[in-house]
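Bug: token stream looks shifted between consecutive jobs. Job 1:
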Amino acid sequence: MKNKKITIIGGGNLGQAIAKGIVNSNVIDPSNLTVTRRRVEFIKDLTKSGIHITSDNKAASTGADIIFLGVKPYQVEDIVTEIKDCVTENTIIISLATGVDSLTIEKYFDKKLPIFRAMPNTAIAIGQSMTCISAHNAGEDQSQVVLTLFEQVGEALIIPEELMAAATVLAACGIAFALRFVRAATQGGIEIGFGADLALKIASQTVKGAADLLINSGTHPEHEIDKVTTPRGVTISGLNEMEHQGFSSSLIKGLITSFNKIENGK
């Protein structure tokens, strides 16, 4: 992996997060990583880590072993048209574009390539992403390369492509939903007496601890909830009030709304 030449086309928030995560994990030498953006001044800080930056997508793609398409869905066709003559049949393509399937990407390239769709979240910058990946025209070795790449920056799973839209909602959108919970808990903490900074610290660590508890123990959330709810206790009173106000149903509706947005484009 160290000697792989990797290009990230599209140095937006996600592209930069991936670049930083890859470099921080030491999975490749920074000199083998190139990030492109039309206005390179917005990504100049990446050079401090030894990453190459450029606005020339074709030059960055030439000779690359792995190319990330870190652009908006409506930009994919134009970008692929621009670089398709620079890739070979062994170039691994990893698309981060929501809602653009592998067959469509293959059609744009007009050649058979190993194409992966990946949906990390922004926690990739600190090596804590949950990345879901689908594979098309890919061999086992190529799939392992991509899986290993993302495993260096968090957890990664290979899933059927038909679940990629759902994975986008649960993992990528999901990090924003989790952060909104932390914000709400912080605001509640302020109302019951904590300063803003202290409330945020307590809420953030509590959520981290809850997640780690499930990951490390492999138990169901309700099992852990039962441990802290006692008859006529303060925890169950608070939980029941949240449910009366639609806490779980509003979260589920939010997930479904985001999913329908991807599926229907509305």
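Job 2, same session, no restart:
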Amino acid sequence: MSGKIINIEPMVFPWRTQDPFLFCAHHRDLYPKGNEDFGPDASLAGRNIGQDFSIKDGFRMYHGTKVPGFPYHPHRGFETVTIAKEGVVDHSDSLGAAGRFSDGDVQWMTAGRGVQHSEMFPLLNKDNGNTLEIFQIWLNLPAKSKLVEPHFAMLWNEKIPVVTQETDGAKASARIIAGAFGDQQPLAPAPDSWAADTDHEVAIWSMKLEPGAELMLPGAKSAEATRTLYFYQGTGLEMEGQVIPDYHLVDVDSTEELTLKGGAEECHVLLLQGKPIKEPVVQHGPFVMNTQEQIHQTMLEYGRTQFGGWPWSKAEQVHDPAKGRFALHADGREEVPE
């Protein structure tokens, strides 16, 4: 094993993460064409509706009953970073904010003191299939930021920086969602995020390597930063000359430059990096605090306030199918990608 590589292990759902990350899930579903309710135009018989995480006929319904996805549910004390690699995600929340994002867009949401939101996957294509591929990453908040005001930002695909390297005509690329890649700076993260302080060296890079392509990853400045790479698609990926088994994660020395080389087929890798927060983590489902007493108080407050309630007509809120990508913020400001 290379001195730069600390550990290699198979990935299981959800993927193991290191502080400051709490959770990472990768979902890929091959949905059929959509029906009038924007759900699958196919029988849902034999499914555990409302708790359907098993792939059947190529797709899962998750917690949806008609539309696949995650109907409204609460969060407190951390952030979600949702990467839509393919397909459509409709966001709605208890603050009255909403959005639709898709192929390549990223939503960065700070739950802070508490928010309810839904993430539905409307099947807008009624003529052909509706493939969905997303990552959802949970990034912890330090104690001082656990109860900040909720916030969400859209990182539109067109604006996300991409670093490309070429080797004998074979291309490798890294989409820079967070954290500088050499001289390439990322878009700004949510303002109260652990990632907002560049000294914390939080990085989220989504990488693709054609067969034989090489990608040189710069090292972090601080040895405190943890770095894990998730090889989730492809075969034959080499890391520092060592072949990585398919669907494995690799913990590496973050301060070292690292060379990746594509294998026999296109390889896809996700990187998560950051300085640990180094605070106690007490989690109860969608609530992440520092003590059991804080969890108890959170549950009491949620029971009393519902974090603002649910202002939408449906638990599985889906937006106008004719509407394109957009973000409606709680202050009424609406933005669309340029």
